[in-house]
Amino acid sequence: MTNIGLTQPNRTSHRIPWLFGLGYILVFLLLDWASYIRPLQGLNITPWNPQPAVAVALLLLNRRWLWIVWVSLITAELVVRGNPADWLVVLTSTAALSLVYAAIAHSLTTRMDRALALATQKDLLWFTGIVMTGALLSGVVYITAFSVAGLGPSGPTYEPIVRYWIGDAVGLIVLLPMLLVVMDPLRRATLLETLKSRQWWAVAVLTCLLLWVVFGPGGQDHFKYFYLLFVPVVWASAKLGVPGAVLASGLTQLGLIFAVQSVPNEDLTVFELQVLMAAVTMTGLLLGVAVDERTRAAAELRGSLRMAAAGQMAAALAHELSQPLTALSNYAQACQMLVTDAPGLQPDHRDQLVEVMQRMVDDANRAGNVIKRLRDFFRTGSTHLHLISPTAIVREAVQVHLRRADALKLRMESQIQDNLPMVWMDPIQIAVVLRNLVTNAIDSAAATSSGDLVVIRAYVTDGELLIEVKDNGPGVGTARLQTLFEAGPSDKPGGMGVGLSICRAIVEAHGGRLWAEPGSEGCFRFTLPVESENHSEVKNA
Questions:
Q1: Most buried among 138, 183, 212, 314, by the most CB within 10 A?
Q2: SS3 state at 506
Q3: What topology does the record note for this protein and the membrane (predicted)?
Q4: For residue 7, is pLDDT > 50?
């Protein structure tokens, strides 16, 4: 039995869970304790500071959590470094650092790609400039706060500022890219696959071997062979892209910290090694981003070729089917007239036949419009936008698939937020997207004995309309997620392999996004921008 439930979806609270906040503080303290080595002149300046990267990552998730960043900084001062000499200085300096971290997070969000996954070289250049500037600003405000209180260094101020800058910059450059990768669903899936690959384990073994060669027994000058550590990072970046670059750089940094603690070195030498570590990381990131861009360009080229073939086919189908569909509609209308005037028919039978004929007319017209709109989209990428209620589109998509869901003994549920705003969209093209996703969800749920449910949700979040299609089928694996929206061979018998790529192209032409969530169950989501109420013109893109 198919059920349609119209309910208000649960909205996620913006309040930070206390368990999550406690976990963040514990991680922050652990990193601060592990990196609290060789503090300079009592100012607690260390060669490597990973804590800012964690703080910036937290603020990228939600700016409202600035207060917990401040609490973690104060707690670290008390737990890791002991009772401070001047609480006013500590409160002032930690508050200033919190604001600097918030400024870094805001700048990254403004200047980089929305996914924050270091997808392009432009993103990497912005990332480098922002974190280097932010690290320098952190050093200036921290040292200035202590100097004004008379607790600053006895010598020139620029030296501790430079060392603070190096420590924060290295921590941000090495750790923050890994956190950005983990925060992006697609990059996270790629990272997990990278950890399972033989190439990564070969890189890890080579990195450990070279660390032993560089810092092993035999003298204190082996750091001059540090350039050997470029080899595994470059190898990982060239073969595995950005995920390989961040993993190799992270492993190298851990080995470097362990070596610095194990082998006697002067503080100045330690900071020089950290500068070299930043150079290694940047080299790996530059190469990894270039490799990823080349891979995406090749995939987009293959997809464009298949999309062009699909466009030619759509144009041919529109030409060949327009006349038969028109004829079918005319025949159905003629049948309606004949049935109406036919003697001897029962009134209820006559009404049923007229209704069936009308459905034939409607479906023939709908098929013709879909073919025409897809043909126009393939030719010029045009969308004829109208102010439409998304509720009607979602309900129609559910109604169309009810009979098939019943035949497969599946339940379909729709959860639509009350009073959804009107949205500018091409109703025919968005209906194609939604029907494609629902069809795939039904196929997925029917493919396993445990699957029996398909849910379509629609609600507004963060100024966008979010439509979600979920099923309790087998879901999308992390390996498949990487190529899911690329035009290629179809998993379905007789499929062309361009359905999802066409859907993504349509959604992006509307200014939205379409993506899949990896997991044990299927979940596809796409967004459409919600326009202001006073926007009255019908837009054609």
A1: 138
A2: helix
A3: Multi-pass membrane protein
A4: no
From the number of C-beta atoms within 10 Å of its C-beta (0-12, 13-18, 19+), residue 388 rates as middle
CA 297 from centroid of its chain's CA atoms: 19
CATH architecture for residues 16-183 = Orthogonal Bundle (1.10)
**Reduced to 3 states, what is the DSSP secondary structure of residue 1?**
coil
225 CB contacts (<8 Å, ≥6 apart)? 213, 214
DSSP SS3 for 527: strand
- Per DSSP bridges, beta strands 411-416 and 453-461 are parallel
Q: What share of the chain is helix, strand, coil (3-state, %, to 5)?
A: 65, 10, 25
Lowest-confidence region among 102-116, 132-146, 170-184, 323-337: 323-337
DSSP-assigned letters across all residues of 340-368: HH-TT--HHHHHHHHHHHHHHHHHHHHHH
* Per-residue CA distances from 94 to 71, 73, 137, 158, 211 (Å): 9, 6, 13, 20, 35
| Residue length of the chain | 541
Q: Helix or strand or coil: residue 50?
A: coil
Helix or strand (DSSP H, E) at 515: strand 514-516
CA distance 479 to 516: 12
Which neighbouring-strand residues pair with 471? 454, 522
Sign of the CA dihedral running 185, 189, 195, 198: negative
State yes or no: pLDDT of 306 exceeds 70.
no
| Structure tokens given for 457 | 């949700």
- Both tokens of 403, joined, read 């009979």
CB 433 within 8 A of CB 526: yes
Burial group, residue 324, by CB count within 10 angstroms (0-12, 13-18, 19+): exposed
Query: 339: which residues sit within 8 A by CB, 6+ positions away?
Result: 345, 350, 353, 354, 357
Closest by Cα among 512, 509, 505 to 384: 509
Cα 234 to Cα 123, 127, 148, distances in angstroms: 20, 20, 45
Structure tokens at 30: 């652990």
What are the backbone dihedrals phi and psi of residue 387, each rounded to the nearest 5 degrees, phi first?
-80, 105
Q: Residue 237 phi/psi, 5° resolution?
A: -70, -40
How far is the CA of 220 from the CAs of 75, 120, 216, 253, 259, in angstroms?
A: 36, 40, 9, 19, 11
Q: Across-strand partners of 464?
A: 461, 529
The CATH class of the 380-535 domain is alpha beta
73 Cα distance to chain centroid: 29
Mean pLDDT calculated for residue range 58-66? 88
Chain mean pLDDT for the chain: 78
Look up residue 185 and give its two tokens. 């669903």
Give the start-to-end residue ranges of the domains of the chain: 16-183, 380-535
pLDDT of residue 540: 47
The pair phi, psi for residue 464, each rounded to 5°, is -130, 150
Q: Are 485 and 502 in contact (CB under 8 A)?
A: no
